[in-house]
Design brief:
The protein is mostly beta strands. The chain has helices at residues 2-5, 103-112, and strands at residues 10-11, 19-25, 28-39, 43-48, 59-66, 71-85, 88-95.
Amino acid sequence: MKDARNRERVYASEMKDFQVKIYARNDEPEFIQSDVLNISETGASGLSENPIEIQAGDLISGVIEGEEFNIKIRYTGTVAWTKETKKGHQFGLEFTEEVLLPDVLIARIMAVA
């Protein structure tokens, strides 16, 4: 787990064009949409201004989408943590399997490194 946390991540200002969309939670249909705060090959975090009902340990699946770039990254993962902030509800997602980040995201990682 510690190795995974040390991977390069793309953060909120670079991710403003991307959304985490949850289509299923614990094998039940669900629709939650949030902004991407950061992303790596092993996980992501999101922020929703609206209240969302996910908890640490929930199994979720959906897509990370950048409509402007015509990007859809399908994922399945576990909610690692949740936190209420002044800006909304934040959560961390640990992917079940590593995802392949598209070139536009890799370029953003390199630009901020």
